[in-house]
Design brief:
seven-stranded mixed sheet; 5 domains; Calcium-transporting ATPase, cytoplasmic transduction domain A; Alpha-Beta Plaits; 26 helices; 18% strand
Length: 727
């Protein structure tokens, strides 16, 4: 049996680290798949026996990346160590600044050189610089060597190896010149400034990564730590972990709901904006379902708990967002293919640069500086972050807007859909139809209520409500069986009972045919009742269109999408709704299998939006299934995207967000690859023979740090999606 675990990983700094971690995990016996995410510092591993979670973590630790298996109920919030990086940067800057000022100051103020010579001799200055920069490399810069050199010895060099080789070569050459007193140029300031700037880049990167992951932290913060459990009518403070299904809790005005449940006493309004993206409070009264994490309004509520812990809505949402953020997109495969060879190629180019400048007669010092510049300016970090950080921020923003992406593949596919197909009932309409007309020749309503009492279909609810209004008691029935897409059958006193659409009834008697004709012209749905093979009743029901459905369809048209409605209702009912909403293509009287076949036949790529059990096949067959969070669990589990609030306008938001995320990823990749393609040749000195500039290692370090910051900053723009749709 395949198991899936999450590993927390420390010490990854670039795309090469990701590629090596994935190779190590995938090489282990029993591992089916492994996906490593640089932005979240985690790995998602699927494996069969004989692999074990702790053994996989230990293997990765031996490979140089400290790892541990996370328990299923533990949430991984990556600690990017911004505070530690800032401390390292401050120490490196303090030690490097005197060296930089002495060596670079005379280029700005020539008199400084003569002033310095009168204070300290060149030989003594060289030893002071060697000591200061030696401390930079040994203290704040130590990690580059302790991680980079072992990686180099394992023939799996990463960014740390590039920095260690570059800064180490500049320092070692300069130390040789100082100790041998050859009179050659020294480059201590290049080694010190390089390490300082890269540490500064990592500090800024850590802070940006922390900002990128704020959505998960906010979701976790929605869970209160204590609740007021009612014991004998008295509220007793208890930890959240002590609550159980069936307990009754008191939620006072202004407090967050600690768990999912049903209102057993009181009425109020709930602020659901953090979970659903809906700004308007929702009115709540007796019998309504409520969700943990929402904020109670002005009235006190007593709530009977229906779900706690991992089964709660908030926990499921958090888990879905974490899974999406840990996933990889198909486009990542291309990036992985390049980054696997990136560092070895850069090292080869650095060696070629050194050899070329030596052959050109530039001398060891100049050749070494050009080679170091190549090692330093190369940036596998930007390539490693280009995709996962956009997913991290984009899926977090989606969660805040009430759109949950189940995985990376769905996110990428949704951006490319050209057709959106909708179920009607509960998706475009409220799913709460009411009976507006009836024809009953005797006992039909009681029989219908008896059968529909065991159904969750919206039309069944309409019949039961109508029976209650008419004070009709449901008849006793047995052996109720669902007839997919048509209705239900049962056994009752006097014979078989059928309740459902006209397709179950055969030829309708004249009065019922006429009733059906008028109801059809009015765009009303029909429920027929037959007893012992004879039609004895018919009920016309009407559903209301969701208040923002027309705006949602208009928004999708603005995105240049073709809109289709697939429904089991009759054609007149479907046409009435379609005309009001300006839907392009209407297909009615469909059974569940017909919906799936229709999805297969429509222009692809296609997204299907539904909320019921009958929609599950179509949701699964579509390129992207979009489930209404207010629908059944089956529909939710079948969807690639879940709209928490059930707001149909969320479809346009989700598609727009997915397009923004993919656009953001393309921008990041163009920058990451373009940066390296453009600047590595400049660092090699390719422009010097033509009178162009050369890049010093210091400028290269600054450019490398800026490259990662650009990618992170660009991804962070997705946090503003919605307020500004074009990103």
């Amino acid at each position: 049996m395949t198991q899936t675990i999450t590993l927390a990983i420390d010490g990854m700094t670039c795309a090469s680290c990701v590629a090596r971690s994935e190779r190590v995990l995938r090489a282990q016996a029993g591992v089916v798949a492994a996906s490593v995410n640089l932005a979240t510092q985690s790995a998602l591993v699927s494996f069969d026996a004989p692999a074990e979670a702790d053994a996989l973590a230990a293997t990765l630790t031996r490979a140089g990346y400290a790892s541990r298996a996370l328990p299923k109920d533990e949430i991984r919030l990556a600690d990017h160590g911004a505070g530690d990086e800032w401390r390292k940067t401050a120490l490196a800057a303090a030690l490097t600044l005197p060296v930089f000022a002495v060596e670079m100051g005379p280029h700005i103020w020539p008199a400084l050189h003569h002033l310095r010579m009168g204070v300290i001799a060149d030989t003594t200055l060289a030893f002071v610089e060697m000591a200061l920069i030696g401390l930079v490399l040994a203290l704040p810069g130590r990690g580059f060597f302790t991680k980079g050199i072992p990686a180099l010895l394992r023939a799996a060099p990463d960014m740390n190896a590039l920095v260690a080789m570059g800064a180490g070569a500049a320092y070692a050459y300069s130390a040789y010149v100082a100790l041998a007193q050859t009179g050659g140029a020294i480059y201590f300031e290049a080694a010190g400034v390089t390490v300082t700037l890269i540490l500064l880049g990592r500090a800024l990167e850590a802070r940006a990564k922390g900002a990128a992951g704020q959505a998960i932290a906010r979701l976790i913060d929605l869970q209160p730590q204590t609740a007021l459990r009612l014991v004998g009518g008295n509220p007793i403070p208890v930890p959240i972990a002590a609550l159980g299904v069936g307990d009754t809790i008191l939620v006072r005005a202004g407090e967050r709901l600690p768990a999912d449940g049903i209102v057993s006493e009181g009425q109020s309004s709930l602020d659901t904006s953090m979970l659903t993206g809906e700004a308007m409070p929702v009115a709540i009264t007796l019998g309504d379902k409520v969700t943990g994490g929402c904020i109670n309004g002005a009235g006190a509520l007593q709530i009977q708990i229906t779900a706690v812990g991992a089964g709660s809505t908030l926990a499921r949402i958090t888990a879905m967002v974490l899974d999406a953020q840990a996933s990889t997109l198909p486009v990542q495969d291309m990036v992985d293919g390049v980054t696997r060879w990136f560092v070895p190629v850069v090292m080869a180019l650095a060696a070629m640069t050194f050899a070329a400048w030596m052959l050109a007669g530039a001398g060891v010092g100049a050749a070494m500086i050009h080679a170091v510049a190549v090692l330093i300016i190369a940036c596998p970090c930007a390539m490693g972050l280009a995709v996962p950080v956009s997913i991290l921020v984009g899926t977090g923003r989606g969660a805040q807007m009430g759109a949950l992406f189940r995985g990376g593949a769905g996110l990428q596919k949704l951006a490319g859909v050209r057709t959106v197909a909708f179920d009607k009932t509960g998706t475009l309409t409220l799913g709460r139809p009411r009976v507006v007309g009836s024809l009953d020749t005797g006992g039909a309503l009681a029989l219908a209520a008896g059968v529909e009492g065991q159904s969750s279909h919206p039309l069944a609810r309409a019949v039961l409500d109508f029976a209650a209004q008419q004070a009709v008691k449901p008849a006793k029935v047995s052996d109720v069986q669902n007839v997919a897409g048509m209705g239900a059958s049962a056994q009752g006193s006097g014979g078989a009972i059928m309740v459902g659409s006209a397709m179950m009834m055969g030829d309708l008697p004249a009065p019922f045919a006429e009733f059906a004709h008028h109801a059809g012209k009015a765009g009303q749905g029909l429920i027929f009742v037959a007893h012992s093979g004879r039609v004895i009743g018919a009920f016309a029901a009407e559903d209301s269109i969701k208040h923002n459905a027309a705006r949602a369809i208009a928004s999708l048209h603005d995105l240049d999408l073709h809109i289709v409605m697939l429904t089991g209702d009759s054609l007149p009912v479907a046409q009435k709704v379609g005309a009001l909403l300006n839907i392009d293509d209407i297909r009615a009287s469909l059974l569940p299998q017909d919906k799936a076949q229709a999805v297969a036949s429509l222009p692809r790529p296609i997204a299907f939006v539904g909320d019921g059990i009958n929609d599950a096949p179509a949701l699964a067959l579509a390129d992207v299934g979009i489930s209404m969070g207010t629908g059944t669990d089956v529909a939710i589990e079948a969807g690639d995207v879940v709209l928490v609030s059930g707001d149909v306008q969320g479809v346009a938001r989700a598609i727009g967000l997915s397009r923004a995320v993919m656009r953001n990823i393309r921008q990041n990749l163009i920058w990451a690859f373009g940066y390296n393609v453009a600047l590595i040749p400049v660092a090699m000195g390719a422009l010097v023979p033509f009178g162009g500039p050369a890049l010093s290692p210091m400028l290269g370090a600054g450019a490398m740090a800026a490259s990662s910051i650009f990618v992170l900053g660009n991804a962070l723009r997705l946090r503003r999606y919605g307020a500004k749709d074009k990103l």
